[in-house]
Amino acid sequence: MFSREENELLTRVGPSTAMGNLMRRYWLPALLSEEILMPDCPPVRVRLLGEDLVGFRDSNGKVGLLDEHCSHRGTSLFYGRNEECGLRCIYHGWKYDVEGNVLDTPAEPADSDFKRKLRHTAYPCREVAGIVFTYMGPQEKMPLFPAYEWVSLPDDRMHVVKSYLQCNYLQGIEGDFDSSHTTFLHCNNLADLARLNRDGAPTLEAEESDYGMRAISIRQLGPDKSYVRISPFIMPAFSIVPGPATAKFEENDSRAFRFWIPIDDTSTWFYILTMRDMPFSAEERASARSWVDAGYRRIRNAGNNYLQDREHQKSRSYSGIKAVIPAEQDGCATESMGPIYDRTQEHLGYSDKTIIALRKVLLRAARSVQEGREPPHIVTDPKLNDFSRLRAVKGVLPANGSWRELPDLEQGVV
Ligand code: FES
Ligand SMILES: [Fe+2]
Questions:
Q1: Which of 70, 76, 104, 112 maximizes ligand 1 atoms within 8 Å of its Cβ, making it the mutation to test the pocket?
Q2: Which end of the chain has fewer beta carbons closer than 10 Å to its terminal beta carbon, N or C?
Q3: How remote is the CA of residue 372 from the centroid of ligand 2, in Å?
Q4: What is the dotted CATH code of the domain comprising 150-410?
Q5: For the whole model, what pTM was predicted?
Q6: CA–centroid distance, residue 42 to ligand 1 (Å)
Q7: pLDDT tens-place string over residues 370-414
């Protein structure tokens, strides 16, 4: 059973918490590039791991992420003037650059050296794949930016969307390592009841790896074949899930890297970065974000009961939620657990095997940092910084074949 102490340890992410310290050791998505598209555009509020920040793009196009509250007397820099390579507080004109240097304190006497003594909290940023990443950990421990597949993929081969989730990040990411729910929650055709009987209870395996863990699910496809799906969990809260089962199982043309990023203990930004080997059209890009509004809030949310249609639930789909993408149905399942689910109340079964393994990996990593040891997947050696072939895998095997024989695995993909 999961203890109260373990639940607290994994779900609290603010400054100085164990999980917060762990998360701060990695580059994390902070916002989308499109939110601050042009130099000197209006700044945006960014809340991340319980810290209130302001993101802005300076006159040279450089992105900064500053503590929201002015070092002088705390006025919000969200209202600031973004001009001439810095963000200026509207109260007394103090001006900051993207690195947190105080460039100007115009209300002070000309000979004041205030500005040289002060440094405003600023986190380093890197823009990759339409996402602004930041590093909020100790300066001397800053890792290399891991070279995942999307780091070097042309822009037209990917698109990204983020969406707000009104619950703790762990509830979200646990869904990615919960293979059996797909059969039920995401069943959009009740006529396919045979499918429910066939693959509702897959065989599960979990294996730790240097980047985190891989979760394996195996479903029988009849007497002589099985269907295998393998999903990597990547430290500290990222995942790759295989695309939907297709007629040609070996065809995995579209793949999604998913980031579950705590805004604070009870809310999450969920980023989906979708990639494939062919360019995406403008229509495909628009449709990929048609389930969120301009502020990245979900159209189907707790406030409208996810627009659940009881008639549809009777006649067509298992959930009654007519989703554009499965994440909308996931949102109902995970948000309705409450802001931070009390895991001492759950009853875990065999189907939760990979979730249990995921929690173990996270607990061990959080405790490592607490005890002054290094957590997994902190990339420091440029020669070992190649994760371009880290992918989810799906495939068909002979009934008693091992998932290790999948051809992609032999090529070292996962
Ligand atoms: S509070 Fe910002 S300049 Fe005074
Ligand atoms: Fe799901």
A1: 70
A2: N
A3: 35
A4: 3.90.380
A5: 0.95
A6: 18
A7: 999 999 999 999 999 999 989 888 888 887 788 887 766 644 444
- Expressed in angstroms and rounded, the spacing between residue 232 Cα and the centre of ligand 2 is 15
CA of 349 to the centre of ligand 2 (A): 18
Mutation pick for ligand 1 pocket among 66, 71, 75 (CB with most ligand atoms within 8 Å): 75
> Does the beta carbon of 89 lie inside 6 Å of ligand 1?
yes
How far is Cα 29 from Cα 260, in angstroms, rounded to an integer? 9
Q: List the chain domain ranges.
A: 28-134, 150-410
> What pLDDT score does 90 carry?
98
CATH numeric code, 28-134 = 2.102.10.10
